[in-house]
Amino acid sequence: MSQPGWYPDPAGAPNRYRYWDGHAWSPETTDHPGGASPPTAQSTGRRRWGPVIMVIAAVVVAVLVGVVVIRGLQTDRPVADPDPGPLPSSTVSGWDDSSATPTLEPSNIPSEAPSRPLPTATPSEARPLRPCPEGMPISRQPYPSDGRMHGGGLSFPRVSGWDDASGLAYSWAYDVGEQSIPVESPDWYANLVVGALFTGDGFDEPKRAADLVMQCVITSGLYPYFTDREEVWSKPVTVDGHSAWSIRAKILIKDPKLKAKGDTVEVIVVDTDSPESLAMFIGQVNLGDTKLLRTLDSTIKNLRVE
């Protein structure tokens, strides 16, 4: 699709329209199409934002902390004051409603954007999407400086040369810890992520939760120009003596600005014996990069349940 204009919201919101500028969807929607075109998400990856956005982030976090306490997500440690990172503009994430998944009503908590724009599907290609749950990834617990990245009841050894990141892209989760490294300009990163999934959001058992997380990863805006998903495996596994489910897939893209053809993505969801949450791991590494794939496999091998 090349013609800019207002089209039915590809995220599936009824009677809502989103603006297509010829390259990307706008973060805003309207029920009165035909007005002035809004700004659209132009970045293709993780961006660093300035002090103004950090002030906005602090205000949003203050509101979200109050809401999440009411929701009652509890883990073994008390929730600490969040450490907001740079805050991108809001987008919508979702999963394919064609699979047998529980009906999830959208939360009233405002969702903060993933760090890459919405997948650039044309109106004719857009599928109805059920919104992913809205968590609070930057609500972090206190963790020791022990050379490991912690989050949601899991940890992995920190990878030398990789940077700590905000985890905002994983907007359906809580207590997200993330390391990333640039792979290709503009802003194409490999990521290693741990966090918590709230069972009340429909992440009620590892197999179904892993499938939902994979759908959220694909449709959240992390993959511009998404074209296809090729599943490598979907199988039960054990993580540090705990039952879990692993899905590995090749996520394919066709972005004219990138040499990258996509990522190998692995999602692992672990039953940590908590009645209120499951633990989540996500690894995303560039397709065909054997060194990054070895890092992913080594990280998974050394996952630890807290």
TrEMBL record:
Q: Which branch of life, at top level?
A: Bacteria
Return any one Pfam family short name.
DUF2510
The alphabetized UniProt keywords are: Membrane, Transmembrane, Transmembrane helix
Q: Where is this region: Disordered?
A: 26-45, 76-133
- Does this entry carry the keyword Plastid? no
Ranges for the DUF2510 domain? 4-35
In this chain, composition skew of type Polar residues spans 88-110
Per the UniProt record, which residue ranges are transmembrane?
A: 49-70
Q: What is this protein called?
A: DUF2510 domain-containing protein
Q: Which organism is it from?
A: Microlunatus phosphovorus (strain ATCC 700054 / DSM 10555 / JCM 9379 / NBRC 101784 / NCIMB 13414 / VKM Ac-1990 / NM-1)
Its taxonomic placement starts with:
Bacteria, Bacillati, Actinomycetota, Actinomycetes, Propionibacteriales
